[in-house]
């Protein structure tokens, strides 16, 4: 299998420099990484135009973010690229955890049945960006991708933002109503604005390598994930080995704070070290990088008409894959809100709920990744003793396995505390939680619940009953197992949907597929009131 | 409770496991090794009293002792 062929995206002279009028879009996005491209697609699905500006013209060099979690894949499904990612990605099942030479335990990641997407897949960031960029091309009137267009300044006039851009053909300006900075952990936008990025930096250095290798290191064709504490093949604290598509293996080596970067990156050091892990298998090194990490966030993600999304707003350690996934969760939360504000169907105040909801999510991600970092990098002899004894007990004691922390995988945070949701104590899927998938049957074949929800508010009733009369809110009914299929209905063939949501309950989902409210006796007034609340309006007005 | 019914393996902390572990490390932060050993001694005595069941404590002592090398 040939390794990834990087194809540069074409640069075109911007219309402003060809004598055209100053570009004017509702939204300008800085950064064509996974976050910026996803946001452009999400806005396009809402009918909102954006211009995406990027200083570069290729996808991510090296695999970088590779673990895409279930909720993120469901968001990608809504954006129209989930199935392609699932097909290309590697889904692993068996994980093995070692302490030195000793295998502490292995586990089989048996997913719960009845979900379209697995717990997560491994897929290199360059594929994710390529698929997203290609999906953007499906919206030629709504998404304009401008590569080799570097933003070097902006000015917020209170009702619009003027963005200053430099190209090889000279500088120009364009205007937008909102500017979204998806320009990464070193965000030039954030730096230009002089915003404090508060948090904690860690001294440990990590070497990450993409290795191309035909023969599996796992002793079978099954994709596994191997994690070592105090690995026998180098003197650092931890290592991780897992598989990506195209027979590329990702190796992460924790090197410690004093490692000499140049020496570690040299072939004389890297190749013998990899041979100690991989034995005499033939391999080639595709990409190498050394990094340190920080857990930090902006105090606020919305500054006037400039909004921060993804790594520009918050960064975490890589343990738990909460960086890339957390950024996509930001997009999911921001897309429909920004579109509603731009279209005038919600007040600007709705954007403050993005700051609150994702601020909460970001704190949760920072907390989990900081705890994982604590476990993985003991700061004192005593911390090391505790860590080693947990690993020792884990062989025979399942409680100790639960304490081993090599990263808690990204899971969606609950937005239950947010005031957009209407509390509903009896709901099995609580307001604030994202959609829980289930297989359904229709006259035209099987569908997944996640495919039916998103991009608009929708009310879903589980079980038989009278449909509420709703103005402006689509309604779906999931009929119990055994119901006769008519040409519009959905049937819960396995019984999982009613089991997961509760028979007789109706749920109102937000456009980002989070539950806004649940009802035992859905009246149209209660549902419309919950919908108004979910767009930040306290009083009941005519549906817009 | 008969000795062979004592299950020391089962997880009883659930989602609070990570919280407890972090707070345990935080409690030791900045202490010398001797101060930490003393903290652990106090902690064991407090927890033993809470467990309150001598057969469980004996099983825990035996397990902890067995893995000592």
UniProtKB/TrEMBL annotation, chain A:
Domain FAD-binding span(s) in chain numbering: 25-358
Record InterPro entries: FAD-bd (IPR002938), FAD/NAD-bd_sf (IPR036188), RIFMO-like (IPR050641)
GO MF annotations, alphabetized: FAD binding; oxidoreductase activity, acting on paired donors, with incorporation or reduction of molecular oxygen, NAD(P)H as one donor, and incorporation of one atom of oxygen
Listed cofactors: FAD
Domain of life: Bacteria
NCBIfam families listed in its UniProt record: PRK08132.1 (NF006002)
Protein name, as recorded: FAD-dependent oxidoreductase
Organism: Oricola cellulosilytica
Lineage: Bacteria, Pseudomonadati, Pseudomonadota, Alphaproteobacteria, Hyphomicrobiales
UniProtKB/TrEMBL annotation, chain B:
Domain of life per record: Bacteria
One family name in Pfam for this protein: DUF2783
Protein name: DUF2783 domain-containing protein
Species this chain originates from: Oricola cellulosilytica
InterPro entries: DUF2783
């Amino acid at each position: 299998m040939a390794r990834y062929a990087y194809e540069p995206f074409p640069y075109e002279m911007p219309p402003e420099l060809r004598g055209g009028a100053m570009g004017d879009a509702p939204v300008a996005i800085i950064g064509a990484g996974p976050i910026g491209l996803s946001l452009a697609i999400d806005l396009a699905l809402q009918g909102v135009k954006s211009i995406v500006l990027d200083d570069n013209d290729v996808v991510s060099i090296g695999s970088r973010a590779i673990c895409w979690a279930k909720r993120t894949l469901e968001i990608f499904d809504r954006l129209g690229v989930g199935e392609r990612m699932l097909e290309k990605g590697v889904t692993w099942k068996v994980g093995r955890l070692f302490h030195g030479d000793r295998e502490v335990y292995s586990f089989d990641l048996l997913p719960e049945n009845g979900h379209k997407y697995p717990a997560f897949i491994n897929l290199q960031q360059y594929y994710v960006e390529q698929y997203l960029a290609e999906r953007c091309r499906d919206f030629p009137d709504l998404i304009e991708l401008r590569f080799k267009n570097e933003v070097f300044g902006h000015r917020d006039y209170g009702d619009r933002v003027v963005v200053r851009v430099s190209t090889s053909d000279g500088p120009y300006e364009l205007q937008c109503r909102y500017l979204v900075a998806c320009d990464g952990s070193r965000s030039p936008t954030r730096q230009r604005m002089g915003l404090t990025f508060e948090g904690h930096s860690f001294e440990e250095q990590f070497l990450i390598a993409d290795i191309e290798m035909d023969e599996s290191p796992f002793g079978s064709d099954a994709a596994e994930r191997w994690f070592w504490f105090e690995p026998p093949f180098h003197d650092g604290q931890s290592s991780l080995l897992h598989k990506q598509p195209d027979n590329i293996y990702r190796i992460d080596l924790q090197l410690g704070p004093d490692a000499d970067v140049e020496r570690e990156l040299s072939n004389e050091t890297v190749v013998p070290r990899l041979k100690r892990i991989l034995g005499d298998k033939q391999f080639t090194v595709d990409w190498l990088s050394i990094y340190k990490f920080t857990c930090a966030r902006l105090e606020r993600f919305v500054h006037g008409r400039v909004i921060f999304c993804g790594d520009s707003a918050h960064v975490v350690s890589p343990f738990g894959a909460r960086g890339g996934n957390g950024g996509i969760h930001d997009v999911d939360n921001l897309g429909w809100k920004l579109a509603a504000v731009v279209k005038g169907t919600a007040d600007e105040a709705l954007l403050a709920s993005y700051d609150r909801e994702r601020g909460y999510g970001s704190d949760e991600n920072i907390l989990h990744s900081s705890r994982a970092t604590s476990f993985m990098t003991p700061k004192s002899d005593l911390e090391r003793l505790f860590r080693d004894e947990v690993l020792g007990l884990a062989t025979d004691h399942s409680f100790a396995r639960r304490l081993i922390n090599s990263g808690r995988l990204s899971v969606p945070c609950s937005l239950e505390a947010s005031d957009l949701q209407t509390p509903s104590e009896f709901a099995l899927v609580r307001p604030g939680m994202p959609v829980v998938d289930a297989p359904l049957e229709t006259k035209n074949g099987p569908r997944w619940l996640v495919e039916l929800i998103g991009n608009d508010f929708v009310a879903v009733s589980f079980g038989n009953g009278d449909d509420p009369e709703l103005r402006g809110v689509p309604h779906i009914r999931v009929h119990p197992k055994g119901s006769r299929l008519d040409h519009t209905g959905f049937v819960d063939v396995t019984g999982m949907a009613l089991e997961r949501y509760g028979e007789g309950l109706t749920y109102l989902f937000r456009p980002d597929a989070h539950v806004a409210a649940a009802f035992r006796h859905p009246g149209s007034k209660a549902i419309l009131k919950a919908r108004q609340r979910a767009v930040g309006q306290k009083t009941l007005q005519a549906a817009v | 409770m008969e000795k062979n019914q004592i299950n020391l393996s089962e997880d009883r902390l659930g989602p609070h496991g990570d919280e407890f572990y972090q707070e345990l490390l935080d409690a030791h932060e900045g202490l010398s090794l001797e101060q930490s050993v003393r903290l652990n001694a106090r902690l064991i005595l407090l927890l033993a009293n809470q467990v309150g069941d001598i057969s469980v404590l004996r099983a825990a002592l035996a397990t902890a002792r067995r893995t000592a090398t």
